[in-house]
Every structure is written in structure tokens, then in C-alpha cells.
Task: inverse folding
């Protein structure tokens, strides 16, 4: 009798295991098909926007109001551990062609930054919260915090001591062109609520060749895709663009209207873009002399950055959907592709080929659904942006890996803001 019970129990366990295996296989097949369709739709939508947006090239302005004709501008420079990079960024701001008495620089750092005191000392400033002084005829203020809340917290803290009608942001590893402020102010005076300057990633000589360094060139290609394809297409298709982290300027009243920078946004730029759009406010894209930034030189840093970007785009989905009547361009061209990066587990299903040849065959068949529009997208980007966009597949591969890493973080540390270089 006990032997019969054990035999029956073993048969039951085997049947459950078989049922679970079949159920898991079917679920994986459904996921492969669903993710392929999602990615394909996102790519096709972007192709439509690019195709219809670029030829038209029309630009619509924002709401009408009576701005000051010579607004005071405050440029915030968030920094941590940048030292000499910070000095380059500030130096580029001190040599603007905008009247020196009409703009100021606010350095937003952390009190425990070991490189900040020496950098400030070389500018004739002290590492004291609220300290202010004239540097090359421009007023420079110091904002120090201890919260380690990331870039959004530093920006909001600096905003409290900034006196400008217009608020600009320049990362401490970026260099602004001499006409950055004047071009941004001209766009804002024309009726836009915010303005984003063109940005470029400067590829060092050592990274300009070689397959193993494609991830460095890929960062430059990604920025050129925005400059040459996505931003002009958005301006032509919807009359607005998006903010991309640095080199942007916003009317202070617009920033106050949407509540400043969210401390719960891993990508404060995407979040701010969504809230500006949802409020009916327009963002200008300004081609011309670019804001230049250094690339990240390690794959680990690039993946960390892309993970935060994917996570931030996913978290912005709810806010964007609430204002979908106005935010639909951003949903179509940015947030849907971010969800598409979650197809990486689908690609990993190929590793199960030895366990389930049927699943591997199914996965390969569905790959054509997204591979065809992806190829069309890539060649259209090359046609519009030139050969500098060739390394895009390298950065897309890292985005897909970042999508996998973003999933557990959404569950345990969804609001974490960690700098790419720290």
C-alpha cells in the first residue's frame, strides 16, 4: 500500500511538471509573438512620424504671453566628482555673447564632493552653500546639498536661489557654444515655453575605429539620430520637440506651472518633457552650434545610463497616458520604443532551443515581424543622418540589455537616480 501511494504521488508530480512545462512553453511563445508585434508597431509608428514630419518642417509656437524682452537667465550646472570637467563647463558659460549683467551661473553640487572645493577655489569661490561672487564679470552662485537625491534634487535646490526669468541646465561634463543663451532666449521670446539646443558626443581618437569600441561611437550616433532625424521630425509632425538632459532652457513660469523637477524621476528630462507637453507647452529644437559632451568610456557606465533611461521612460508612461491628447507624439516616438527594449527576454528564448526546438522555431519565425521594420528604420536613419549613424546597432544592443536590468529595479528601486560617471 505505501508503495502504491508513493507511485501515485510520483505520477502526480510528473504530470504537474509536464503541465507546467507545456504551460510555460506556451506562455513563452505568446510572449515572443506579443513582444515582436509591440516592437514592430513602435518602429512603424516612428517611420510614419519621420516620413511625414521631416519634409514638412513646420514649427508651431506656444501660447501667447508678454515676456520681458531682455530676460535674466540663470544657468544651473549640476555636478558631482567632475573637477576639471566642471571648470570647462563653467568657462564655456562665462564667455557667452549674451550681456553678462543679464545672466548668472548656479553651481549645484554636494557638500561631500572631494573635487568640488579645489574647482571652486580656482574660480575664486568658496565651497559654501549660498556663496556668490563675480567671475569674469558673471555672477556665479554656489548651491550645496547633503541629500544625495541625484540631479533632480540638485536642480530644485539650485532653483530656489536662482533669480532668472529663464532657467537653463548644462551638465558639468558639457561645453556650451558661445551663443547658447542668446539663441535659446530668441526661441523663448518667439513663443516657445522651452528650448533644447542640439547636442553632440565628441568621440575621442582612440575610439573612432574597432568593433570593441563601437559602444563609444554608438553614443555619438544616438545623439546624431536625435539631431538629424527625431527632433526635426517631431517639430515638423507635432510642432514640438523634447528635452534631452542638458543644454536646455525653460521659462521659469512654465517650470513653476508644472512643479519643477520631479524627485521621483530617474530621467528628469523625459518627465519634464511629458509634463510640459501635457500642459500644452511647446519645446523648440535649436539646430546650429551644438552643446558638446564627453562620451562614457566604459560599457558598464553606458549600460547603467541606458538602464536609468529605459526605467525613466517606463515610469513616465502613466503621466503621458493621462495627457495623451497632447503627449501622444512623445508616447509614439520615445515611450513605446522603451517598452520595446523589454523584448530582450524574448531574444533570450533562443537559448532554450535545446529544451524546446518548437519554441526556438517559433521565436525565429516571429523575428521577421520586427526585423523588417527595424531594417527599414535603420536605412532611413542612415539616409537622413549619414554614415555617422552606422554604429546605432551597438547602442541598441546595450539598450536591450538595459531593458532586462530595468525590470527588477522597477520593483525594488524604481526611483533611484545614479550618475552615469559615478
Result:
Amino acid at each position: 500500500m505505501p508503495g502504491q501511494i508513493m507511485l501515485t504521488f510520483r505520477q502526480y508530480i510528473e504530470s504537474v511538471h509536464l503541465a507546467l512545462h507545456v504551460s510555460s512553453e506556451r506562455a513563452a511563445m505568446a510572449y515572443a509573438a506579443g513582444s515582436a508585434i509591440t516592437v514592430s508597431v513602435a518602429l512603424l509608428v516612428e517611420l510614419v512620424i519621420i516620413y511625414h514630419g521631416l519634409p514638412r518642417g513646420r514649427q508651431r509656437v506656444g501660447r501667447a504671453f508678454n515676456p520681458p524682452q531682455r530676460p535674466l537667465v540663470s544657468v544651473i550646472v549640476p555636478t558631482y566628482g567632475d573637477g576639471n570637467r566642471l571648470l570647462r563647463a563653467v568657462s564655456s558659460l562665462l564667455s557667452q555673447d549674451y550681456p553678462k549683467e543679464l545672466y548668472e551661473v548656479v553651481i549645484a553640487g554636494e557638500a561631500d564632493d572631494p573635487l568640488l572645493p579645489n574647482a571652486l577655489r580656482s574660480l575664486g569661490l568658496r565651497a559654501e552653500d549660498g556663496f556668490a561672487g563675480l567671475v569674469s564679470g558673471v555672477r556665479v552662485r554656489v548651491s550645496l546639498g547633503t541629500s544625495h537625491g541625484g540631479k533632480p534634487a540638485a536642480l530644485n535646490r539650485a532653483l530656489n536661489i536662482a533669480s532668472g526669468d529663464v532657467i537653463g541646465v548644462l551638465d558639468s561634463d558639457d561645453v556650451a557654444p558661445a551663443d547658447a543663451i542668446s539663441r535659446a532666449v530668441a526661441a523663448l521670446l518667439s513663443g516657445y515655453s522651452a528650448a533644447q539646443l542640439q547636442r553632440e558626443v565628441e568621440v575621442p581618437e582612440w575610439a573612432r575605429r574597432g568593433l570593441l569600441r563601437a559602444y563609444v561611437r554608438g553614443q555619438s550616433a544616438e545623439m546624431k539620430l536625435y539631431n538629424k532625424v527625431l527632433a526635426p521630425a517631431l517639430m515638423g509632425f507635432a510642432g514640438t520637440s523634447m528635452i534631452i538632459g542638458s543644454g536646455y532652457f525653460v521659462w521659469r513660469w512654465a517650470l513653476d506651472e508644472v512643479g519643477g523637477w520631479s524627485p521621483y524621476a530617474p530621467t528628469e528630462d523625459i518627465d519634464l518633457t511629458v509634463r510640459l507637453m501635457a500642459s500644452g507647452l511647446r519645446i523648440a529644437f535649436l539646430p546650429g552650434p551644438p552643446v558638446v559632451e564627453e562620451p562614457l568610456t566604459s560599457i558598464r557606465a553606458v549600460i547603467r545610463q541606458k538602464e536609468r533611461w529605459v526605467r525613466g521612460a517606463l515610469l513616465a508612461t502613466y503621466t503621458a497616458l493621462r495627457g495623451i491628447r497632447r503627449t501622444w507624439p512623445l508616447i509614439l516616438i520615445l515611450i513605446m520604443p522603451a517598452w520595446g527594449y523589454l523584448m530582450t527576454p524574448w531574444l533570450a528564448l533562443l537559448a532554450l532551443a535545446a529544451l524546446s526546438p518548437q519554441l526556438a522555431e517559433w521565436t525565429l519565425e516571429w523575428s521577421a515581424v520586427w526585423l523588417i521594420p527595424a531594417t527599414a528604420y535603420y536605412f532611413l536613419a542612415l539616409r537622413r543622418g549619414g554614415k555617422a549613424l552606422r554604429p546605432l546597432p551597438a547602442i541598441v544592443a546595450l539598450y536591450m540589455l538595459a531593458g532586462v536590468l530595468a525590470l527588477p529595479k522597477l520593483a525594488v528601486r524604481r526611483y533611484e537616480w545614479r550618475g552615469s560617471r559615478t
User: Anything to note?
Assistant: DSSP finds 14 helices and nine strands in the chain. Strands lie at 73-78, 103-110, 132-135, 138-145, 166-169, 174-175, 194-201, 248-251, 283-293.
